[in-house]
Amino acid sequence: MSGKKKRRSATSRPPQPREIEPAARAETPEPRRGFGGLLGGGPSILPSIPRSLGRGLLAVVTQPILLVVALVLPFLVWLALLAIGFEGSAGRLVDVLALPPIATYFDLGTGASVVGVGPAFLVFTAVSVLVRGVVYALLAGMVVEALEDGRVSRYGLLRGIAAIPVVLVVQVISFSLIIAGNLFFPILGPGIGFLAFVAALVGGLFFLGFAPTAAVRQGRGVLETIRRSGRAAQLPGTRQLLFCALYFFVALPVVVGLVPGGTQLGANPSLAAWVFILAVSVVHLAFMAALAYRWIAVEPLVPEEPVRRRVARTEPARRQASQRPRGRR
Description:
Helix content is 68%, strand content 0%. It has 15 helices and no strands.
């Protein structure tokens, strides 16, 4: 009997809690204050930047319609620029499909080269903002469908059309940001002013980068969609600031400086220049798809209301607060 009782007591032990796997721990990182959670230094709540870029590139190269856009649109833009009297280098074409506000910076420079600074410049800017808003909204709808279903159909285009108001507002904000930067940042001097302008471009992409995808997937109002884009970018552990800084470095200094014959003037770019321009256009779409992929991953975690951050008090501060005289009740 004693042996049976011992066996029963040994087999009737309550189950012990299992140790959490390292992967499960990485999915719920502790919040980091300051820029630690934005730049890195801890577990990320999103796919890594290399994985995001790889997934975005795969979504683009496996969809023929997206490849056609990346390969044909720069050529059509070049023909349109020549038709309105553009005289410059084909190096500008490397940022035809760049994300705003870098694309807006490209449009403003092109407009100043074609029509100068005046009333015609405002007309050129308004047309470019409208065209870009429509094109980017349609691309956002197609990219989201490619990531969700592995295909691009009319449904993706319809979702992109519904997102046009949000993307147009993003274009207008990008335009205002660049104009304000050109007016006020030179006051800081050539060095600090340039760094402030770069920070403004990166910051614009940081706060607005998720807005087109959020508009396609959620269909909310313009202001609410832009707010949610900013909230998602500020979530700790996203490394969104590092992603935006990487894209800025690729989109301006690298590709503009490496385009073959980028400083040569002429209506007929070389074959090497065209190959480089078209390859960079695919890279721009891959970054756009990577942003969409990251939004889809972080979407369930975006709060409906702004997150209130409470500053943790140190022990001496707590003691001083407890020793303060309280008012009479």
